[in-house]
């Protein structure tokens, strides 16, 4: 009886230690992340994950293939009249600011309109934005799966012709190969703020 009690006590102590270590790590990680982005959701949130798409060079790729360096991921479409080009250019400017500091980052543009955004169309679009920007498309099913993984929203507006618009969310996600999702940026965030936040994350977390 005494032996069983001692074994139970030892097991309980080990469990408590493991839980406390987990809590300490979680707080440390999120405290460090919050120093870089106090107003955003940072840490290991359930955003991002596996996807299989087609890049602008018509090559089948996975998330592991394309997020091989720190990356800015944005979901949009090339026929977008104002929001998407502005956001994509803003991400391109942030990329340039980081390049000037010697920080390698990859801006990624995932279309939510694969019916019109072929690899060729995407390549024309990304080349206008930044030489390092990578465009990704795929089947309707593949795009939907990627959107669900990143918790984005999009919906095709009703139209009687091919000149339709898409309703969609506009967050940009920052990911690294090691941690996956790290942070997100809103439309009002400037290139400078994005570059500074990313530099902070890469040096402090």
Order of helices and strands: HEEHEHEHEHEEEEH
CATH architecture classification of the largest domain? 3-Layer(aba) Sandwich
How far is it from the N-terminal to the C-terminal residue, by CA? 48 Å
CA-based gyration radius? 21 Å
Side by side, the strands of the main sheet go 2-1-5-4-3-8-9
Structural class: alpha+beta
Description:
The strands form two sheets. Strands 2-1-5-4-3-8-9 form a seven-stranded mixed sheet. Strands 6-7 form a two-stranded antiparallel ribbon. The chain has two domains: 1-36; 52-204, 3-Layer(aba) Sandwich (Glutaredoxin). With 205 residues, it is of the alpha+beta class. The chain has helices at residues 2-36, 63-66, 83-100, 119-129, 140-149, 191-204; strands at residues 52-55, 60-62, 71-76, 106-111, 134-137, 154-156, 166-168, 172-176, 180-185. Strand 8 and strand 9 (180-185) form a beta hairpin. The protein is globular and about 50 Å long. Mean pLDDT is 85; it is low at 2-32. The chain contains six helices and nine strands.
Layout of helices and strands, plus pairs?
Blueprint: H1 2-36, E1 52-55, E2 60-62, H2 63-66, E3 71-76, H3 83-100, E4 106-111, H4 119-129, E5 134-137, H5 140-149, E6 154-156, E7 166-168, E8 172-176, E9 180-185, H6 191-204
Parallel strand pairs: 3-4, 4-5
Antiparallel strand pairs: 1-2, 1-5, 3-8, 6-7, 8-9
């Amino acid at each position: 009886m005494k032996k069983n009690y001692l074994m139970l006590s030892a097991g309980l102590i080990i469990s408590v230690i493991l839980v406390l270590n987990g809590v300490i790590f979680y707080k440390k990680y999120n405290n460090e992340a919050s120093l870089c982005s106090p107003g955003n959701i940072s840490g290991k949130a359930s955003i991002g994950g596996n996807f299989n798409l087609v890049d602008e060079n018509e090559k089948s790729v996975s998330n592991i293939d394309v997020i091989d360096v720190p990356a800015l991921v944005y979901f949009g479409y090339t026929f977008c009249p104002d929001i998407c080009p502005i956001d994509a250019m803003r991400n391109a400017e942030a990329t340039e600011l980081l390049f000037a500091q010697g920080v390698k980052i990859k801006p990624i543009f995932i279309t939510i309109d694969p019916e019109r955004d072929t690899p060729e169309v995407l390549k024309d679009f990304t080349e206008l934005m930044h030489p390092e920007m990578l465009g990704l498309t795929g089947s309707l099913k593949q795009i939907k799966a990627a959107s669900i993984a990143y918790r984005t929203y999009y919906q095709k507006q009703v139209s009687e012709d091919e000149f339709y618009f898409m309703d969609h969310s506009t967050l940009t996600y920052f990911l690294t190969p090691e941690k996956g999702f790290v942070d997100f940026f809103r439309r009002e965030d400037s290139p400078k703020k994005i570059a500074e936040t990313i530099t902070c994350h890469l040096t402090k977390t």
